[in-house]
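Q: Could you predict the 3D structure of protein arabidillo 1-LIKE?
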Amino acid sequence: MTRTVRRKLAHSKEKNKEIVGSDSDNPDDGCLCSSTICDLDWTALPDDTAIQLFSYLNYRDRASLSATCQTFRLLGSSPCLWDSLDLRYHKFDITTAQLLSSRSKNLQKLRFLGGESADAIISLEARDLCEISGYFCRDITDATLSMIAARHMMLECLQLGPDACERITSFAIRVIAICCPKLKRLQISGVKVVTGEAINALAKHCRQLVEVAFMESDSVDEFALGNLTSVQFLSLAGTKNLKWNSASCVWSKLPKLVGLDVSRTDITFSSVMRLFLSSQYLKAVGSLFVDITENESNMLSYWRKVKSTDRSMDAIATWIEWIFSHFLLRIAENNPKELDAFWIKQGAALLLDLLQSSQEDVQERAANSIATFVVIDDENATVDAQRAELVMQNGGIRLLLDLARSYREGLQSEAAKAIANLSVDSKVAKAVADIGGINILTGLARSVNRLVAEEAAGGLWNLSAGEEHKGAIAEAGGIKVLVDLIYKWRAGNDGVLERAAGALANLAADDSCSMEIAVAGGVHALVMLARSCKFEGVQEQAARALANLAAHGDNNNDNAAVRREAGALEALVQLTFSQHEGVRQEAAGALWNLSFDDKNREAIAAAGGITALVSLAQSCSNSSQCLQERAAGALWGLSVSEANSIAIGQEGGVAPLIALACSDIADVHETAAGALWNLAFYPTNALLIVEGGGVPALIHLCSSSVSKMARLMAALALAYVFDQRTEEFAPGGPFIRGNLKDHELR
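A: Sure. Here are the predicted structure tokens for protein arabidillo 1-LIKE:
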């Protein structure tokens, strides 16, 4: 599980905001100008330089560049460029594998994501693979894993996790043991039962096995583990039902064991002491911790120094970083309340140390842990300010931004996610902006990798919540980038679309930014999302963005631009029928803002807006304050027109407005009273107000509302209700009018 904070802000109704732009007149300082790039003969570069440039590209871009000319075709086929592939962030199926197979003869290291990619590995024809790392392997079966093992007999390292490999059994572990005799590292998470037969097969066939990890299992044969005499590092983190008394006796006799990870298990203190006192190697390694007890938060830095001066400690330090990164991510995901003090005193510092690891997967997990442990409530965009600011104060923002600059897409994605979540805190957001984070995130949002672009857009979404950052995002080219994301990533990419629309919604609250959004084609893009996207999060943010664009009134032409966009009003009207309250709320808000324009009012009515909004008002009595206010507000705006006012009465709009006028919330009963005031101008509506019990409700508002505007609207509505034009309709007119007139005057 990973957490990503989704920032949601209310509509902006302010009309005259100023933004302070940057003093820089040259946004391209420090970059090659386009003319210089065009004049370069890239094929004339030295081979080693060109190959180095190729190495910074993902496999798709390498293949595309290789297809441009014969020179690049030869360079792009260099074996050194294809000794490692990270396929986690790209679609990798059998067809893609077959296309890559000719370049994969020398492939040594492969990282993949999910079951479909696992099935495709066989088609790569990379029989010399030494290392395979699989992520999110929940759907991988024994058959698939057995076939992978049978085709890759040179395999030295196999890692599957961190989520549970629920469909893998001990049968596949036996096949791995038999087919991969050179195996040195085996790490599998979530195999329910690891039998003694499977472990003994590893002991028999894999004589070079140095590291074994059976994590998150329900049962592991602890006696059989004692036969793994070559193992130096053993992890059973999160494993259940271990017999610790017998296990400690057996494992303490493992001749080469130097590292044992039993985190998140129910191991007893006596078993720990027995292991520690009985194992010569564990005791020796434990003595190395003596010098760092006074400053435990710097433990990993200490180990890194030890590793640099004593190469014999390299494997130990590497393993310690690996298990710490797993452990911290797991507890960050669960986030138990009793570990609050741990995060403040040690945990945050450990994560920042792990960001500086030489292991890419450790750095990724550390960034993911930071993104996760700061979150209190991801749905309501709440982070722990103390934790977030602790990361900032200890240099974490700069470390994360440095990782975000990496050419490795895994690091880019995880670092951008951490920056995004931290930026919910206003102090951290300022630090991110001050260090140049806006430019970095804007650059990452241009990535052809969807996950990188998604997390970067999320960062811009959260940063754009601050008024002081809107101008900087616009200056960095962020508005154009966000609009382009909507056109680039269409259906099926809901995460990136929601974040891009959310960021544009925040930016649209600023007058200057709203005009730039329109110039960049943002109105069309947002209407396209409102019309065609079925994901509710995207619909909500698109509607919010359109509402904010329409909120500027006479300051710019965005209100009219929304109306002129084909299908815009119809889409917003349809969204008021959504099953998701947030979507209905934002759609109603957009229609409210649009209704201030005369032409919009008639167009909304023609699109079925009156029927939709009356229905919304009738059904929102138990909904949020914001939805009630916006439903009443939209009807208020539409009711300025005589035809619309009469139509609202005919559609049954009077009764729900009276009900909303009885609300205890000032914003709600204020807008409802405003709508009733407009409706009361017409005799048929005035009669409906009287018959529907509106008079007592309006009198109550006149005497008790805390809102001066609500009291005024209620008084005006009462005045119109008992105007002389309604006398012929009001039963017992003079008597009722007189009594109510007295109330009105008081």
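Q: Anything worth pointing out?
A: DSSP finds 42 helices and twelve strands in the chain.
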